[in-house]
Amino acid sequence: MAVTYQEAIDYLFPRTTQIKFGLETTRKLLAGVGEPQRLFPTIHVAGTNGKGSVATLIADTLQASGWKVGLYTSPHLVSFRERIRVDGVPISEHAVASWTEHLRPLIEETGATFFEVSTAIALADFAAREVDIAVVEVGLGGRLDSTNVIVPLACVITHIALDHQKYLGETTRDIAREKAGIAKPGVPLVIGEPEPELVAELLEAGRAVVGGLDPAGGFLPVVVPADARFPGSLGLRGPHQRRNAAIASVLLETLPAPFRPRDEVKAAAFARARVAGRLDRRGRWLFDVAHNPDGMRALTAALRELNPPRPIRALVSILGDKAYPEMLIELDQAIDVGILTVAPTATGRRWDTGWLERWLADPGRPPARAKWHLEPDFWLALREVEGGSGTILVTGSFHTVGDVMTAKGFEVG
Known about the structure:
Elements: H1 5-12, H2 24-32, E1 42-46, H3 51-64, E2 69-72, E3 84-86, E4 89-90, H4 93-110, H5 114-128, E5 133-137, E6 154-157, H6 165-168, H7 172-179, E7 188-191, H8 196-210, E8 220-223, H9 239-254, H10 263-272, E9 280-282, E10 285-287, H11 293-306, E11 312-316, H12 324-332, E12 337-340, H13 353-361, E13 371-374, H14 378-385, E14 391-395, H15 398-408
Parallel strand pairs: 1-5, 1-6, 2-5, 6-7, 7-8, 10-14, 11-12, 11-14, 12-13
Antiparallel strand pairs: 2-3, 3-4, 9-10
Helix pairs in contact: 1-4, 2-4, 2-5, 3-9, 3-10, 4-5, 7-8, 11-12
């Protein structure tokens, strides 16, 4: 009897707790589905923050140019199917079930992780749906990320910040070296990071990966000027998105003909672009997946620029392996009320509510501008945050945003 979509998801999701670096397993899975990554050109997108927005801007522009475009991103907000889209249409439930069933013997044999399997399914689905080109977002790091099996037309590193230090290194220079591992011989590598020291690290590491600067086949870096901002109309909100759009614009300009878009097509696509969960306004609700200190700084800067109706009442749940004290102190500067809770889907990675309770009661912590309290019961916290006037901000992780969108019946697409 054929596997159903729900059975496939129930089989795959327990593997989300596994983190495994290296490309060997992904290559075995891809061999098991006919090496789909060889059947279409790709663009590879890495970075601590901004990669989802940059990937979407690139994909939307290519689609507006008349190409059939695959887009692979992670994580999802509500449904696994969001991760794998062709011209905006998510992978079908039947395809998820069929590819999972086909790959299951190899999954068992190799001990493949959730992300290794989802990467193989994405590339197989793109080939099956006969895309002209695909935009592939790195999951974690770059050098040993499952997506690094592709040989793209162009690569981009959006920005470097502290996140996932347990896996990528304790400093931004360590993280830069891991992300530079997506560099390929003869393939343009667009560097969006503005800090000169980190740009230098990326250049050095990328050159080491590729093995030289020989224009015939060596390292081909393209550094986006630190002050570059996209000047035109932009559908994405927040000052940081103008930087992301500038990076995406440079990447598109590095593409070979015929994929390089016309200026007017790019301008129209950028003006229409939307990414669910990124300063995503739904009536009085405002969703943002800021999940590390750098992302939270971008969010507070955007709130100052957007100046949404006051009071701003924030529902916040952050994963336990993030720098949440720093994130809360930053968010405090921009909101009026903060309700701390626990996102239901953050199983295994929940933050320490006992520590939060002690921290909120600690007279020695930085003085708070907003009124804060802890309500661990998600449903009670959700009811409470809806009880006042003004703007309801939901932030802290993809889990938090996704759980509230699911609870309130908001569509992601």
